[in-house]
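Lab meeting tomorrow. Please check the following:
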Amino acid sequence: MKKLHRKALAAFMSLILLFSVSSCDIFDLDVNTDPNNPSQAAVDLLLANVLSNMSSSLAGGFNGASTGFMAQTTANDDFNFSNASWNGTWNFLYSGPLKDLNELVAAAEAQGNNPRYLGIGQVLKAYYFSTMVDFFGDVPYTEAFKGDAETPIKEPVYDDDAAVYADCLSLLDKAIANFALTSTVAVRGDLIYNGNMTRWRKLAKTMKLRLLLQTRNVSDVAGQIQALVTEGDLITAAADDFQYEFPTAVTPDFRHPWYQAAYAGGEAGFSYFGHQFMYEMLVNGDPRFPFYFHRQTTTVLNPDDPTDKQTIPCSQRTDCTYGYFVLNPNITNALFGSDPDGLSSSEEAYLAGIFGRDRADPSGIPNDNPIRTIPGSYPAGGVFDATSGSGGGNRGSSVGYFPMLTSWMTKFYLLEASITLGTDISKVAASESALLNSALTDQMNKVWDFGSRGQTVAADESTWGTAYSWPVTFKTRAALRAEVLAAYPTGGSQTARLGYVLKQAWFANFGNGIEQYNAFRRTGLPADIQTPLQLPRQFALRFPYAQDELNLNSKTPVIIYDNPSAAVFWDTLKFQF
């Protein structure tokens, strides 16, 4: 017992000695000083994360659906969504990059001496949330990201879409003011402009032009647009383009979503390109075609073989316009002046590789992955179509990019403003035709820039037929532009001129369906896109809300996304087939 008592006493004295150490020495052990686990993310890391994740989301599902709406791909081209369709995307955005963006802006504001990061955050917030409005209409905005606040908001309100747009315009004005301030804080984590404030300022002003033009049917914005054009501080040169270049590393794989679908696996997994889009580019002799598309096969399917017949495009329909190119006499005569049975072997082999679908063809999906036309070297970083060859296997350069707001887009905005609002564009170009020529020149140069990386491309398009043994004749860039400008309806009606311009934008904005989807809802143009073969739903005027939101947030509006009542505030057309 005495031994036990002495041991207990010793232990007790040791405990007293421990607590006699000053309190600061004890409590300092609880302070988080681990540099690898900071309590708050650094603004440069937040910025890089926001740009990477948002760009991937926009270039992925949003872009895919939009190009489907506009008949360039078959993604969602029948407009048949459910509330589960965008569940994962919505949850990812609000729990990931949009929340990180909110933290970036809050941190830059709290620091007080960081106007550059703050300005960048404000521009990005304006871009991303105006885009969320374009897709979803009313969205959580003022009460978003407050689930972990001192007074948590678990069910944020859905702010009026017009009010969100108005705040986005205000954010852009604040950003422009912030970019004019001096700062000793160097900007890091900027994956777009590498901290160049002049380019961020031009982006803010051009984005303001974009949002104003978007609302031109519901607000008198002519004066504000004219002021921006007169000021002249817009993105009108390729060096200032707002674009995201995807990394090329295989692990982890953050390459362009189209590249991942077409080249990352053992075989191509990309869905289909729209037949009209490919056909019109071929008929036009458009030299962008071999950059946009890559053929996987030269083998002509036999309609008398049961397996081949099930695989042939539109084999289960009788109302297709384009169907299987190589067996469609309307197409073979338009391209080669011959019926299918009169084609040469090289003509047959070439057309066999043009394998997509008519708009909203409801036929089943056969095992045709190895023969579908897949993305080429622009903008996904795949393979230039010098010769046909299978996808998959990480072929191509994988140097993909997503054009978000570019010089040619700016010039298309200005053309629309000139045609519909009478905006004086003389500071940018001498005429609408000259401005259209400039827009096409910028875009084609970008196609050649990205599309030629890691590829062997003959510099002179006039030699392509010989260099690649193609039976089709592609014009030179200069010749195509001259042809387009010669047909511009200079003295035509507003609708004729705008329709002509937006048809050219349809070809030029390949890779950014968001621009096309917005332009179509504003104008209904271009008006000559193939009518869907089947319409389980009407044209999608917006996206449906996520099922999780309907289940967990009682403030989520109940909407029917293809009903005219669901149109976003700036959409006065409310297009219906």
